[in-house]
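G., the chain you wanted modeled:
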Amino acid sequence: MTRVAAVVPAFEEEAAIGAVVAEIVAFDPSIDVIVVDDGSSDATAAAASAAGATVVRLPFNLGIGAAVQTGFRWALERDYDLAVRLDGDGQHDPAELPKLLAPIERDEADVVTGSRFREEEDAYRPPLGRRVGITWFARLVSLLSGQRVTDTTSGFQALNRSGIELFARDYPSDYPEVEATVLLLKHRLRLAEVPVRMREREHGSSSITFLRSVYYAIKVTLALFIAMGRRYAVPSEGVER
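Predicted structure as tokens:
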């Protein structure tokens, strides 16, 4: 039987996390939900546990990259075959998971990302500034990697064992999704995108302000060029470095 772990990083998501966990469990009770509480000061951990999740608590806030990597390390050490990643704010719909898992089950991809921009009729319309940033990174990563990608900031993913191993051992910090896309393509893992719909956040607010967006754009652009020349540790034995 294929064992699937749902990795859900969460920070100060007391109002949303219980419903997120319950929705995943209701969709497929065989999926083990692991909530990584990134040093929240509210009742995020208690709400996740009450809803049926296994909770891994970080001692203080380490950032989204560290929280995600912790979840993948947890899945790797417990020999899960597949992992899915959903955010803790409720924007990702577990009913879309079969779309992400299908290419992996057909052995067509190692990592599948849910893209909000694969279809023109998609209802998701972020603010103009964010849309410009998403488009910029998608085009830059496509150019650097040689593979067309449309949504490099999506945190909605499915991974096979190879993807779990890579991200458990090496995962960028801060706002990591863009750099992580380059990382997996550098290691010749097969990336696919499938169209998904993202729901509006019902509780709390995004931590990405205008100034943070500017900082993020500059930092990640520089990091991408550095990453293209960096030698990462490839998790598979016998792979040429």
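The first strand starts at residue 4 and ends at 10.

Shout if anything looks off.
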